[in-house]
Specification:
This protein is mainly alpha-helical. The chain has 14 helices and 7 strands. Helix 9 packs antiparallel against helix 10, helix 9 packs parallel to helix 11 and helix 10 runs parallel beside helix 14.
Length: about 400
């Protein structure tokens, strides 16, 4: 973890792809590893020996083609990649171009005579694919390093000029002031989301054929849809949490109204989220999957709401009508009548007891009839209201589409 000058903590991962573009790996394997490491990195250091040769530029052709595609379908997200650094090792012309970043900049601006037109185009288009292109020219590390099998990485065995240039390069690239967070689809990546990025990109490149630019674009489209879906789900759950935060059970009609209201807000948030439409029909399929996810969450909230049901007399009193006070009122009236009867009989007031008994019976009978018939009427009205709500929701979805 490195703290940036703004106080933000950045998790720095150094990813080594040792062995890429050697004589022991196939071209497809090397290209896949190189492409995957570039996509997930905020800074890619491309090691070349002596000079930037034609094969080094050919290895970057995939990113140029993807850059063209991304700038067509996802121009609002800016350049597809962040920083690419050419590290030219064992550079042999320090009299013409000085070691370090400044000499590397002059070297990058120079186009070798006789270079093929295709490679010149690739070289020119790299600037539109990467936010920043850097080049460092490094001297030979010394014969003790190159010619001795006993070299164990001791700094004292390196040439002083090599040590100095490496120190400048590391400070320039990895100092807290120079570090930049990884940007994916225009947004800084968090550690949690980086896991999802790795999974998606690894699945994209896990095939027996060469990765295509459209494959990368489709992977980014799925990542954007995943983020938009998760944000919409969070909005729906937060609103439903507030609506169902009480201790008492909500009527089915109220639950359905809250579900529709929260679902509309979640879908609106999803529609406002920037997306890449890589293929026709993606938007419709994504909406259907989001609706299924929201409906699954609603079923969970219905189960939680049902668990709040209180058995016995308390449920009878609180279930009477849309107003809890009405149920409590009937219950209180019945209890008062029974208590009045008992008091009258105990005091020997026969007439009062005779009057109180029928009042008690009538009150209890009224409560029983109300509790028995109320669910029947509620289901009838709820079914009608549910149909009206669904028709209205379908009409709004049709208008929105």
């Amino acid at each position: 973890m490195i703290e940036s000058p703004t106080g933000e903590n950045l998790a720095v991962v150094l990813l080594d792809t040792q062995g890429a573009f050697d004589n022991q790996s196939t071209y497809q394997q090397c290209t896949t590893i190189f492409a995957l490491s570039t996509i997930v990195s905020s800074l890619q250091i491309y090691n070349v020996v002596d000079a930037i040769q034609e094969d080094a530029l050919q290895n970057l052709s995939l990113f140029v083609e993807y850059g063209k595609l991304a700038m067509t379908h996802a121009r609002s997200f800016g350049t597809p990649f962040q920083s690419l650094c050419f590290c030219v090792r064992d550079f042999k012309a320090p009299e013409e171009y000085a070691y370090g970043e400044e000499g590397g900049r002059e070297y990058m601006e120079h186009t070798p005579p006789g270079q093929a037109a295709e490679l010149r185009a690739t070289r020119d288009q790299l600037g539109s694919c990467f936010n920043e292109l850097i080049c460092y020219l490094l001297p030979h590390p010394g014969h003790r390093v190159a010619e001795r099998n006993s070299f164990r990485g001791h700094v004292k065995d390196l040439r002083p000029v090599f040590r100095e240039e490496i120190r400048k390069m590391v400070i320039s690239l990895l100092s807290p002031e120079a570090l930049q967070p990884k940007i994916v689809n225009g947004k800084p990546a968090t550690c949690k989301r980086m896991i999802q990025y790795f999974k998606e990109y690894a699945a994209t490149f896990d095939s027996s054929s060469m990765p295509l630019p459209m494959n990368i674009l489709q992977a980014n489209a799925r990542l954007l849809n995943y983020e938009a879906t998760q944000d919409a789900k969070i909005i729906y759950c937060r609103m439903m949490d507030r609506a169902t935060s009480g201790h008492s059970m909500l009527p089915e009609k109220k639950m359905l109204e809250d579900h529709i209201r929260c679902g509309i807000n979640a879908i609106s948030s999803y529609d406002r989220h920037p997306k890449i439409i890589a293929e026709a029909g993606d938007q419709k399929d994504n909406h259907e999957k989001l609706q299924e996810l929201i409906n699954a969450e609603f079923e969970r909230y219905k189960r939680v709401n049902s668990s709040k049901k209180v058995p016995g007399c308390v449920h009878t009193l609180t279930a009477c009508g849309d107003s809890v006070l009405l149920g409590l009122g009937l219950g209180t009236a019945a209890g008062g009548a029974v208590a009045g009867t008992v008091f009258a009989l105990a005091a020997g007031i026969g007439s009062a007891g005779i009057v109180a008994i029928p009042i008690s019976l009538v009150t209890l009978t009224g409560i029983w009839l109300y509790v028995y018939t109320k669910p029947l009427f509620t289901r009838c009205f709820a079914a009608r209201n549910r149909e009206d709500r669904l028709l209205e929701s379908d009409r709004k979805d049709t208008d929105r589409t």
